[in-house]
Amino acid sequence: MISLHQLRCFLATFEHGSFTAAAAELGLAQPSISEQVRLLEQGLNAPLFVRVGRGLVPTEAAQVLRPHAERALTAVTEAGQAVASVRNVLEGTIRFGVFGTARHYLGSALVADVLREHPRVRLELIGQHSTEVLTDLRHGRLEAAVIALPIADEGLQVQPLMRDEVVYVSADPQRVRKPVTATELAAAPLVLSEASWGNEDSTRRMLARAVQSVGGTLRPRIEVEDIETALEVAALGLADTVTARGLLYGLGDRLAPGLHWASLRPRIYDEFAVVFRHGATLSPASRMVVTLAAARMRAIGAAAAGR
Predict the structure, then answer these.
(1) What burial letters (b/e) apply to 258-275, b meaning 16+ CB within 10 Å?
(2) Quick check: helix, strand or coil at residue 95?
(3) In this predicted model, what pLDDT tens digit does every residue of 5-24 receive, in sequence order?
(4) Tens-digit pLDDT profile for residues 231-282
(5) Residue (of 274, 271, 279, 277) closest to 156 by Cα position
(6) Range(s) for CATH 1.10.10.10 in the chain?
(7) Which of 1, 163, 205, 243 is deepest in the core (most CB within 10 A)?
(8) Cα(153)–Cα(144) distance, rounded to whole angstroms?
(9) What residue ranges of the chain are covered by domains with CATH 3.40.190.290?
(10) Helix/strand number for the chain, H first, E second
């Protein structure tokens, strides 16, 4: 039976042309090297070296064996590296960027997914808004992130993930009995979230363009920081709001009662993508989180669209 140790001894002898030099490279005694090569020859039933003067010359069988021996040892090395990478995931810290409302798409479910796969990992989900997450990515404070599109940065690589329809939300069912046009949106009393980010927010920019297309200006009556508050204000009938269908689905039982929604005309979509620095190779840890986050978001997007 051929062993990896025999192949190591064979390759060292092949490289140096002597048992003595091979022994010096591997830190073994010369008789041990020659014995391993002899056992390998017995296992293969073929001579591998012939003695010429004070050196060893590989036979044709040795020439044929060499690439196979190298591949076998390379495979073992790569296997060890793969196991080491998994061990690092199990015990390392993962810092992953997320957009502000990601908790409604991912949140504790993503944490549970990660810890179920790798219970010893330390996880940090970073980000209040896609804008600040992009800054952290550019400065190397994050390796990868899921953010809202669009972005304008040639230094970042973008992998589109999903899109989610933006809908008009009101406590008055009459206001959402049909799709809401840009003209109606321009005249509507609105409460909008992301007050601190204003026109840096991608959804707000799309709404502003829609309203401008009919000669209006987007002027919300009320501005708040988080979408939960905006929805609560809307549920009180004080103003209407706009948000993504998947976010409403993600809120589930936490959604303020008495709300109704309809599509906009023309339709508007929030788009999300995995983003990382151009040319970067993601670590096994980040690849794992990307895979789990992508699966979660696509599932919510599909469920919300179906609903």
Answers:
(1) ebbbbbbbeebbbebbbb
(2) strand
(3) 999 999 999 999 999 999 99
(4) 999 999 999 999 999 999 888 888 989 999 999 999 999 999 999 888 777 7
(5) 277
(6) 4-89
(7) 243
(8) 14
(9) 94-306
(10) 12, 11
How many residues appear in the chain? 307
Distances (CA, A) of 136 to 143, 149, 249: 9, 16, 29
For domain 4-89, is the CATH number 1.10.10.10? yes
Q: What topology does CATH give the domain 94-306?
A: D-Maltodextrin-Binding Protein; domain 2 (3.40.190)
Structure-model confidence comparison of residues 207 and 138, the more confident one: 207
**Among 95, 93, 96, 125, CA closest to 108:** 125
Contacts of 275 (CB under 8 A, 6+ apart): 97, 134, 137, 144, 145, 146, 147, 151, 156, 157, 158, 159
Between 78 and 74, name the one with better pLDDT.
74
Query: What does the pLDDT read at residue 303?
Result: 79
Cβ atoms of residues 295 and 109 within 8 Å: no
What the block records as the tokens of 50 is 């012939």
Q: What is the pLDDT of residue 103?
A: 85
Residue 159 is given by DSSP the state E
User: What per-residue confidence (pLDDT) applies to 84?
Assistant: 66
